[in-house]
Amino acid sequence: MDALSSSFLSTFSTQKLLYRTTPPPPPPSLSPILNVRIEEKPQQTQTTKTKQPISTSTTPPPKTTSQTPSSIRSSSSSNSLQSTKRKVEPSVPALIFNALDDIINTFIDPPVKPSVDPKHVLSQNFAPVLNELPPTECKVIQGSLPPSLNGAYIRNGPNPQFLPRGPYHLFDGDGMLHSLRISQGKASLCSRYVKTNKYTLEREAGFPLFPSVFSGFNSLTASAARGALSAARILTGQIDLSNGFGQANTSLVLFANRLLALGESDLPYSVKLSSNGDIETLGRYDFDGKLFMSMTAHPKIDSDTGEAFAFRYGPVPPFLTYFRVDKNGVKQPDVPIFSMTRPSFLHDFAITKKYAIFADIQIGMNPLEMIAGGSPVGSDPSKVSRIGVIPRYAKDESEMKWFDVPGFNIIHAINAWDEEDGNAIEMVAPNILSVEHTLERMELIHALVEKVRIDLNTGIVKRYPISARNLDFAVINQAYVGKKNKYVYAGVGDPMPKISGVVKLDLSKGDQRKDCTVACRMYGEGCYGGEPFFVAREAAENLDAEEDDGYVVSYVHDENTGESRFLVMDAKSPNLDLVATVKLPRRVPYGFHGLFVAESDLNRI
């Protein structure tokens, strides 16, 4: 999971991180952020006759009377908890453990490297917002929102409820959903935490309980100390792992009339949007008890069959497990892949109509690095990357085939398809050229989008560069997942993990060994966005619509003014022309992945 890097925006204001060694208790009306305060200057206003104030709606969401399905393990926290939470004095064991935690973070394993120093990682618009935002009206300041966007654009990302006392990695924050509800040309923004077990336990305690997964175990000493502290918290009842410890901070998927917030270290969390645009967490979702461990944050949905395909990976055999879910939401049996002989960092994969495709890359678990004081997850330059291909309806791994693809290291996959003769597959993905920097020096990453062709009979692998630019967070028209597609919309890293613009690629030009960029929009100096998302124009009513007939949308933040906006771009135009710009009532931090849910689908959730 990496983050990346177009001409716009105006007034809100910059944020500063002020760290304290001994934080005062937070006032009851504020979110309990420890060790840090984010100061946001008042929004500047211009004296113009046409200026209209942004109105806000604070009406609480209507109570639901529907019963929660048995496969959803209900969250004990609700949206109303934000303002009604009673301050609880920490117990004596909690005070002792917090003091030990401070000793570990100060003397044993302080955040020395910039990649795990909260003052560096959570600077600028990576800083979390202080509290949740109820549905709040937004102003369309340019153009108009098209009817195809009636629904909600929702983006997931990390927003730590408590800022860390010690090392922190960008991937470690609590999941927060930023939803822009659009109806009849009007928009409202809502930002809510995914009420995970981790979030709920820590909010009730009033301080962090769980160590950072990506940054808290960077040496044997640090691992032993934090492991012992976590064990003590478990034994004294401060931590309950029976309901998971994930943050659900990576992505979302709409499947079988369920909207799921995903993070690959835990089960999905089921969420829903109310009629006024508010977000409610329903609880962990285990597919009627058939999913008892984690799953990928990037499942693939076949729009023709309605099926979902997914996997999980881990540090113990089987290092990879593949599975699918039928169109009715019934999970099918696991297919363990024992031919993956060592743990690998498998964040994403691809499907075709006949196969599922996995990349065994040079990033994986590396205990020797941890002994030397490095991260337990790192790169191995001696490892030869491989691509694994298995029939997508396989019941076991007997037909799994592996192909060596030296130097091919992907974090995200864009798409894949079968060639017409059925003897070959093609896959498109950004290849991380400087893989050793993936988790620690993301600003040094360069991702080169490649098309890879594998002859399944001969084993011959051919690779074609699609663009020389630094591109990632690429998306396609979702109706073409697993099928041959022509167009890709990708974020421009400048440098990663910031996205300074979006480009449109024409894959049909890929075999000509030239840059396939056919459209581009840069956001402007100091302006950065996130993953673009393609929304088809009236797709349900127009089955013959062209692949690129639609809109590209994204949140964009102006670091010069501190203001965030929502951009709607014409996907067919050569300059990705702006169709509409929505001024957001407060900044939206940089995040990870999102999706658009049409109004008709929202009504079925």
UniProtKB/TrEMBL annotation:
Fe cation binds at residues 298, 347, 412, 593. The keyword Iron applies. Residues 43-83 have a biased composition (Low complexity). One of its GO terms (molecular function) is metal ion binding. Its cofactor is Fe(2+). Binds 1 Fe(2+) ion per subunit. InterPro entries: Carotenoid_Oase. The keyword Oxidoreductase applies. One of its GO terms (cellular component) is chloroplast stroma. One of its GO terms (biological process) is carotene catabolic process. Keywords: Dioxygenase, Iron, Metal-binding, Oxidoreductase. Residues 18-88 are annotated as: Disordered. Belongs to the carotenoid oxygenase family. This is Carotenoid cleavage dioxygenase 4. It comes from Quercus rubra (Northern red oak).
